[in-house]
Specification:
It is built from 24 helices and 7 strands. It is α/β, with parallel strands linked by helices. The protein folds into 3 domains: 130 residues, HUPs (Rossmann fold); 95 residues, Serine Threonine Protein Phosphatase 5, Tetratricopeptide repeat (Alpha Horseshoe), CATH 1.25.40; 213 residues, Orthogonal Bundle (DNA Cyclobutane Dipyrimidine Photolyase, subunit A, domain 3). The strands form 2 sheets. The protein has a 5-stranded parallel sheet with strand order 3-2-1-4-5, sandwiched between helices. Strands 6-7 form a two-stranded parallel sheet. Strand 4, helix 5 and strand 5 form a beta-alpha-beta unit. Helix 12 runs antiparallel to helix 13, helix 13 crosses helix 18 and helix 16 crosses helix 22.
């Protein structure tokens, strides 16, 4: 029996119709469902928000509006804070249930959701949240997580709502003076963000997600393995699905299951390159699994925005030079590949994983800037900003987790390995276009034309930070905390009891190969 009461489907970072558990649940349980997106001023003004994020939300919403318009339906968009919006809407046209996905976010969104829960309790409104990723709430045994993840990831996908279901969506006439004009598409400028024509923005939408994934599976993906390490090739060899996954225009399990189907297709293919295709797509599959693994860390440790997973690393001392921070943000550090990556990020919102690791390492280990200080500036640069991924990688690359190999990246070695002819560097640093690749590689303590000298000597600065991390890592209390971090957050390919049998159980010890200074 369909519920006669009115329900709200609250869109957050799940801007799609297909495989949408919250939307499907609302439509299957109610005869009338109000699709609502709330453009929060607190989101627009947040220190981690940028035009990349606002544009992603707007393009995804406009795509959804276009899909729904075919059935003469639309989305109610309100420009206000969530609690104020719920008050106004409930007073104008009451509703009894709110459906949404489980958002794994930062303290700002966590506190907002606590306020929503309190509002619902006060107003006798039921709030139902549904899982969107292979991330699980509540206390879970990390040894069991892989089994839970597989059950969720390989479960049947939810299809796009039928026309009959779409017909249940409506916007009450009482909302007309509250919602954004329903007959027009949104623009970032409507919410205070002007688009810079120099920006190269990726289309983030449900329709765009399918096109990008198909292009990766049948055209670009063959170069994934071996092509994603260099910024020269990663732009095309990479899947470019991260922004879609971050803003929910497609789900991880949609991508996972579609990729498995493509792998099965390749098994019976006569394509002479089928073997290379399979290797690349298998590598891609493993990274999809890692994605949920890292987001789970934030769900299980919500304070990791402000606290290192391993509390022993509170002892790390940073200089936090405002001059160095500003130069790093602007791409003016004097380290050519670092600056090229930063400038690329500022204009496109994308850089590959290895380069993300390098620029974080340079900030923390060479310029001695606290990882919490670069959190928001980096988040603003990433078009694919996903809090769980971002914070997990930020802490891991800064070396404050204590269970991973720490790599202190040499920016010059990375030029030799990833951009030996300085093609990428010259594309993003025009000041260096008249200089040879060797001059760029050899660049140190003197300006190169209009390009500045390095802010500090990498070798000496990296050694100081490496020694400081080492002194902390070898302390008995650090090792004890590292074991606790592993037990709660470590990856499990096998149950922990099999990885570390009782009779051979060992503490996590800092070994020489866990602190690598890349020369």
């Amino acid at each position: 029996m369909k519920n006669e009461s009115v329900a709200i489907y609250w869109l957050k970072r799940d801007l799609r119709l297909a495989d949408n558990m919250a939307l499907s649940a609302a439509l299957s349980s109610h005869k009338k469902v109000i699709p609502l997106f709330i453009m929060e001023p607190s989101f627009l003004k947040a220190p981690e928000t940028s035009i990349f994020h606002v544009n992603a939300v707007i393009t995804a919403l406009n795509d959804l509006k276009s899909q729904l318009s075919q059935s003469n339906r639309n989305i109610a968009i309100v420009y206000d804070e969530v609690i104020a919006t719920l008050d106004r809407l409930h007073n104008a046209h009451p509703f009894s249930v709110i459906y949404s996905h489980e958002e794994i976010g930062i303290n700002r969104t966590y506190k907002r959701d606590l306020a929503v829960k309190a509002w619902c309790n006060k107003n006798e409104v039921v709030w139902k949240e549904y899982r969107q990723t292979g991330v699980f709430r509540g206390k879970i045994n990390r040894d069991d997580r892989n089994k839970l993840w597989k059950a969720f990831t390989f479960d049947k996908l939810f299809p796009k709502p039928t026309k009959a279901d779409i017909s249940k969506l409506f916007i009450p006439s009482a909302y007309e003076k509250i919602v954004y004009p329903i007959d027009t598409n949104c623009s970032p400028s409507d919410f205070g963000y002007e688009l810079d024509p120099k920006l190269k923005l990726q289309e983030v939408s449900e329709s765009g997600a399918y096109k990008t994934l198909h292009d990766f599976h049948y055209n670009r993906g063959i170069a994934y393995r071996g092509g994603i390490s260099s910024p020269l090739t990663a732009l095309t060899a990479g899947s470019r699905m991260s922004a879609h996954l971050a803003w929910g225009t497609i789900t991880g399990r949609q991508v996972y299951q579609t990729t498995l189907a493509r792998l099965a297709e390749l098994k019976s293919s006569n394509d002479p390159h089928a073997s290379r295709w399979r290797k690349s797509l298998s590598s891609f599959i493993s990274r999809l699994h890692w994605r949920d693994h890292f987001i789970q860390r934030l769900e299980s440790e919500p304070d990791m925005e402000l606290m290192p997973l391993n509390a022993a690393y509170h002892k790390l001392k940073y200089d936090n030079s405002e001059e160095y921070l500003s130069a790093w943000i602007q791409g003016q550090t004097g380290f050519p590949l670092v600056d090229a990556c930063i400038r690329c990020l500022r204009q496109t919102g994308f850089i590959n994983f290895r380069m993300r690791s390098m620029i974080t390492s340079i900030a923390c280990h060479t310029l001695k800037i606290d990882w919490r200080v670069i959190d928001h500036p980096l988040a603003k640069m990433f078009a694919d900003y996903e809090p769980g991924i971002h914070l997990s990688q930020l802490q891991m690359q800064a070396g404050v987790v204590g269970i991973n190999t720490l790599r202190i990246y040499s920016p010059n070695k990375q030029i030799v390995d990833q951009d030996p002819n300085a093609i990428f560097i010259k594309e993003w640093i025009p000041e260096l276009r008249n200089h040879t690749a060797q001059q760029i590689i050899d660049h140190r303590d003197q300006p190169l034309g209009d390009y500045p000298s390095q802010l500090t000597d990498w070798w000496s600065s990296a050694k100081v930070m490496r020694n400081q991390i080492w002194e902390i890592r070898k302390l008995p209390e650090t090792m004890q905390l590292a074991n606790k971090v592993y037990e709660k957050h470590g990856s499990r390919k096998r149950p922990m009891s099999k990885r570390f049998p009782k009779k051979k159980a060992k503490k996590v010890k800092p070994a020489s190969n866990q602190l690598k200074l890349e020369l």
